[in-house]
Amino acid sequence: MPKLVPKPVSKLMSKLMSKPLAVRLVPSFVSLLLLATLCLADATHDLHLAARSGDLGGVRELVESGVPVDATDDWGNTALQLAAKNNQVAVTKYLLEKGADPTARETFFGSSPLDMALWKGGPDYEIAKMLLAAGATDRASALSYSREIGDISLAKAAAESGPVLASEAEDLQSGLEELDPELAKILSSLTVVPDPPPPVYSVEDLADFAGYFESDGSTARLSVREGRLTLDLPDHAGVGLSATAERAFANPERGIEVHYFGRAGTVEGIAIEVADQEPLRMRVGDAPQDPKSIVAAVPDATPPATVEPRVNWPGFRGANRDGIGDATQAPPVDFDLESGVGVAWKVDLPGLGNSSPVVWGNRVYVTTAIAQ
């Protein structure tokens, strides 16, 4: 096992203790705090590494030496999260016995240990069932997934672990006649509790949800009007929305729901559900610009008759990480850099390009690496 006290810290303390008492009184307190912080960070890393790799002996030794079982990294991952993600059954069982929190969520994607167990734990989903029995509260995810794959055993474990919210039950119990009779029976007999009150957002809070969103052929604008979040779609203008849950809004009278998604608490896009229509999924976009402002950035260009909504290219493989571009932009598929065929403009840059370009509005961002 790695040592719990890093060598640089040991050297620092040795130097400090060689000083006269009067010199080292105040620094020693600061150094002890530093030592404790570094030791915990180092031990947390070791615990996570052992949990991820299935080293039960290492996990046991670190926990019994005093490392908190739910110690987190910078993104809120715990040892339980990593053990579940890597399908480490024995480690998961031990961590739960030691009081690890099955409801903890990491802060980047917001995923729980149960999310990881459902993703990586097939075909028997043993870890998922252990987490449910230990008190994982996102059981609706397990029920939805068991419905999707037809896993009666997983559905039973999730149903027996506790109640689901009324809104969750409504989704889970729709179309039961199309399911396996035993699975339908489990879902129809769920214990249901009322949804909690919706969050109350101030006007300042609502401003964080405002913006322009786009996908292939679709656009949406959300703004705050008269203290209310308002949605504008091509076929649905001025739809006032009310909060229904965290980062979720709806207008029941018009059959519209809007859900926000994004990593690390940011807003990266929205999912829009309109009654009797296919769901829409859009990314944060660039509001359409005046044609003259676009032409000004490209010398000798002719203003287009109309400006099509553009889908930005925010990174490798595009907006949805699927490598599919915006058909309305009609980029050239044949080009020759030497002759200039299919090339609108070019700029010489020093160094080496080592990442995907980003296209945002009428700007292109690139990175370069230059040797010093």
List keywords for this structure.
12 strands; 372 residues; 13 helices; alpha+beta
What does this structure look like?
This protein has 372 residues and is α+β, with helices and mostly antiparallel strands. Helices cover 35% and strands 16% of the residues. Helix 1 packs antiparallel against helix 2. It has an 8-stranded antiparallel beta barrel. It has helices at 7-17, 21-53, 56-64, 79-85, 89-97, 113-120, 126-134, 139-149, 152-160, 166-172, 181-188, 203-207, 291-296; strands spanning 164-165, 192-193, 211-215, 218-225, 228-233, 236-245, 248-251, 256-261, 269-274, 280-284, 358-360, 363-365.
> What is the molecular shape?
globular
How would you write the strand order of the largest sheet?
Answer: 3-4-5-6-7-8-9-10
Unreliable stretches (pLDDT < 50, length at least 5) are 1-12, 22-26, 289-308
Q: Provide a count of the helices.
A: 13
Major sheet summary line: 8 strands, antiparallel, barrel
Helix proportion range: 25-40%
E-strand count: 12
Quaternary state of this entry equals: single chain
The radius of gyration is: 27 Å
Order of helices and strands: HHHHHHHHHEHHEHEEEEEEEEHEE
Beta percentage is 15-25%
| Main structural class | alpha+beta
Q: What number is the mean pLDDT?
A: 83
| Cα distance spanning the termini | 39 Å
